[in-house]
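Record type: ASSEMBLY
Status: queued
Input:
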Amino acid sequence: MRSRIAAALAIVLFLVLAGTGVSSALWSTNVTATGTVVAATLGTNCVTSQPHLANGSFEIDQTTGSVTQANPSAMKPWLTTDVANAIEVWRASAGVVVPTGNQFVELNANSDSTLYQSVATTPGETIRWSLLHRGRSGTDVMRVTLGGTVVNGVFTGGVSQGEFSASNAGWVRHEGVYTVPAGQTTTLFRMTSVSTATKDNTIGNFLEDVSFGTGPCIKAESTVTPASGVANSGDQLTYTTSLTNNGGNASGSSVYSTVLPAGVEYVANTAMVGTALAGSMATYDSATRTLSIRLGTGATASVGGSIAPDQTIVVNFKATVQPSAAGTTISYAAAASYTDSFAPGWPKTATAASVTKDVALGADVAVSVLDTPNLIAASATANATWSFTVSNLGPAKATGLSVAVALPDYLTDAGTVVRRSTVNGATTAATVAGGTACSPADGAIRTCTIGELVSGESRVITVTRSITQQQKTVGASASFVATATATTSDPVATNNKATNTTTVKENTPPSVPTAPRLVSATLTQTNLAWTASTDNVGVAGYTIYRDGTEVGTSSTTSFSDTGLTSGTPYAYTIEAFDAAGNRSAKSTAFAASSAFDPAAVYRIVYPNATNLCLDQYVTNSITYVATDTCSTTQPLQNWRLVATTGANYKFAQAADTAKWWNLRSDSNDSGIQFGVNGDNNNAARATFSPVAVLHGAILKYTLVSTKSGLCADVNGQGVNPNTIIQQYPCNSSVAQFFTFTRVS
Amino acid sequence: MSAGAHAAVSPQKKRGLVSKVLGLIGTISIAVTVALVATGGTYALWNTKATVNASSVTSGSTAITINALPSFPIPQLDATSLLPGRSVVSAPLDVKNTGTTPVSVTLGAVTFTSPANALSSSLTVYVRQSATCEATAFGTTPQSFTTPIVLAAGATTTVCVEARLSASAPTTVQGQAATFSVQLDAVQKR
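Status: finished
Output:
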């Protein structure tokens, strides 16, 4: 009853829904199917040959003739159901392209038949089959069947993989995948003729490059030669790798790709495939140190080709052991990438076991020029000395070391002395003088036998010769060549030799620079200029001396001397030089002052008298600038130089900067006295320029009126206090020389 | 089970008929047009204004099975390992309308019941109507049926379920397994 009520309610509900619209009132239901699938795993055991179809290219027992009929015993392990028990073999001379090897077969030999062989298989494994098919006189059709059994040429069971056709226009590849059923440990691979274009069952169905296996599986093995012994830096090693396809199907995109180990460098263009240079098939990327070689049938300069089952390809290349490898073991692991044509997106890699090579510690003997004499024509004759440094830059001790010095043919007599030092270091000729003479004492080659030189040490070799005036003609040269040899491995040959050459230079110096002068100055710098020198070849530059000491060189006619003290006079001289090193005489010395510091306070000393300084002096209610006994406690002797324009200053009373020196008249005549009154509305009368001068060898200043151009002058060269300062034509007299002493 | 009988019911406006109607429909299949005034579960009224168009509404039972099961586990699909661009296919599956009315069968959702992995992301499941089942050739995309399959009551058809691994499946899918469920939806055919 309950079920009836439930059913009734359901129907009523349905009816209600039906009343709301026709379309929504239909019953619905569903059903599901479930399934589990699994993705294949590409084989990884490539060390041993994997079971697969054999003689897929029909190459066994090749004979002559364009077309022959072979007994299956000559084409093992293939068997046939042909009525004459024959396998018809074709070769290139028959006029049909042979895709691989030298032979292919015609399935229709003497009848419609099946060509087959039994292959060991493992239940559950995924096997790829593949073959090339071509019609002979049109479109022929054949069938691939896998599995089943055969007794006396009669087949039972098996799974058809389909019927396949191909025209005679070219080879066509047919392929498929087959999973070995449970319990099936051998699988019959069967190719059966179905039809031929001519209807003649003795003509048709060319077959070639048949494979049936668990995919390509490449084994890589490497060797290095020389196989035994220890390598030295600089040696060339040959790395050889064999790549064997132990799988049942051809590989694709086969590329040998290996990163070279540290310590070796690839020798360009040495990659070989078999016995032929790889050429464009090989690429070496120096950035990643990766050598790539495209391999196999169909390989191009950009894409790898295929390696057939059971095929072995051998590649090799040369690499040079680097000095950095000294004392290390170089380990090399070759690798090749390839693809299974049934899963090109799942690339595989074959990696060979590492091969190693020990590298001996090496020395690196290096010769360099230490010093070269500067020979100038017609200069005083003296011994000239050429010197070399012989060093061991390598990690190992150099033994059997000697240096041969080759002399110019006009200096081979005993007047040329070659010696070597006996202690470490690129030291002086004096050390060499205490060293050992090289031998023989004369001759074109002098040999310095050093023997052992440990890592990091060096010796000096000197060649001493008195160069005659006749030999010192301009342009004459003398070259000495030192070459080191050692019995120890020395991989860096390029630094074993050095040449020390001197060319005699001309001896005409440039003219003396003229008109040296101060252009401008700052508190710490003087900017100097002079008139250019001339030279028979060319002036190379100028050397600037300050107070007798070189302060720099300039390739132009100006120089800025920096790092100076403010308010200080300096004496400069200038010297020109040419490319040969010839030097002019020094220019006339000239004085130049750095700028005065407005923040400083100076006492102005009159050195013509003993201990007199310029002071403020009042007489008859007039304030003058006059001499007075120097006193460190007299503030009226303290002056501050306030810059106006250029090198001009106002000389202000340090205690009252509103008062400064002032010519007491507008007149430019001699005898106008210096007052201390401010500018009296005439600034020109209040500005003076302290000009550095050389008084004999002593640097002093003259104080020049900007307005009149006359110099401050101690009246009558007076040596007593209270002598008033006046203006007077500048005459370099002692009455016009002053010095500045900075007091703060 | 026979197809549902059709009966025209005249509009009536009368209380107390529900029990009689229930008694009637409990024994036979019936199609009526009513308007149920659902103010409470205790009574309903036949809508006197409604008119039954006997040809527009049917009633009965619908049910379909695959190989006689409402949910059929396809055996042996994992006996063949999938390579990229290749398929595995079921043996022919019998889809039967075990209901009492014609149904229209369409392809429903495909879901993966195992945890999502790279393999399930690279798989596509197809269902097609065919008496024989062979894996679609490499390079050819399998097809699913798109026109609804009409099955009369009691009728049977055969379909193939094919799982195709994408040709661009990543190498990480190697050795992975995935379980899918594909649904066929059946709607009563008017």
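Annotation: Residues 5-24 of chain A have pLDDT under 50 and may be disordered.
Annotation: The first strand of chain A starts at residue 28 and ends at 38.
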